[in-house]
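On to our target:
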Amino acid sequence: MDPSDESLEGRDIVVTESGSINVVVDLPPAPVAAPPADEAAVAIDDVVVDPSRPVHTQTASVTIVTAHPVVEAPLPPVRTVLPKQVEVEVSSGWRQPSRRSRRSGEVAEVPESSAMLTADRLLVPGRFGRPAPEGGARLLLYKATFGLANLGDSPKVRARKELDKRIQRPLDGGARFVPVLTRKGGVGKTTVSALLGMALADQRDDRIVAIDANPDRGTLSERVARQTDATVRDVVQRAASITGYTDFSTLVSRDVTRLDVLASDTDPQLSEAFNENDYNVVADLASRYYSIVLTDCGTGIVHSVMRPTLRRADSIVIVSGGSVDEARLASETLTWLEANGYGELVRNAVIALNTATQGTSLVNVEEIEAHFLSRVRQVVRIPYDPRLAAGAAIEYHKLRPATMHAARVLAALVVEGLPATK
């Protein structure tokens, strides 16, 4: 190596004892890169410590800022407690929120049945306008003005629709039993049973059956167009093979109003054999397939069949004629019931006062009504109708308007006296 080489200027050349040559070069200080911004934010300044002085430690909080935002865990949902609204108590025993409560989010305490989805609840008020009036000059005016002039239904039509609504009252749960009874024959008990059943079946969507439990050869099946010769005895004998409504329906006659009628035995000797156990078999089967079970009872109030009939009864209908002795026997029937532990049935009973019996024209019927109203819930007069007096099959829709109205009022009162749930 030539020491005179210009490329070695400014460099110290040292020759070691071993003959090796070391070149000492002064290099400029390396550039110091600026720290990243996130590191500079958390850097701690250098502090000169004097060893001759005591060291006093001091803590300080340092805020660390990260480059990425902190993801917080989601908070649990907050349950908003709405103010308690006014509740409407229904007859089924549980409480249902009002329409205003439902709009604010409140729900019923138990699952609702499909019967709760009524048009009054679901349809928006005023959205479809006022319904067209039914018949008469009001309907003509409505059509002539293309719906601009709508006077609504007449008072008579509104009263009829209100009565329909009373008869159609929903009944949840098991079957309701309604015996029709009296202690005197010939006052129209079977006719009243048929009228009541037809009025119920004509308006209600559920099934109605009338059972002739008269041990003295009842005639209830003759008040409808008979379609079968089967009787209560056949139901008892075939009870084990009856597994559905189709099987049961083959043993009854159905009226045009959809009333099913189960006839009694035609042989008086067999009728006497129809006892308490037999009635329970028939009643148990009927309760599976029908909502309302009417029982046309005989005049023997102490007959063995009367005991299970009254035990199952949810309400009763007492039939009375318009004469003095007929009214007195009907009142004695109420007395017997009260004395034998059926006082509640008496207070909830409805009297069907048949004014078509002999002697009615000579009796103050208002006084008879006043007497019964002091003991029972309501009294309904059944007017004279030649179609009923004939004793043949009843054509319900051909009855006189007053007779049909009386049957419908009786049906409404009976339904109102039944428990809403069972």
Residues 125-167 form one domain. The longest helix spans residues 324-339. Residues 198 and 341 are 31 Å apart (CA to CA). The chain has 16 helices and twelve strands.
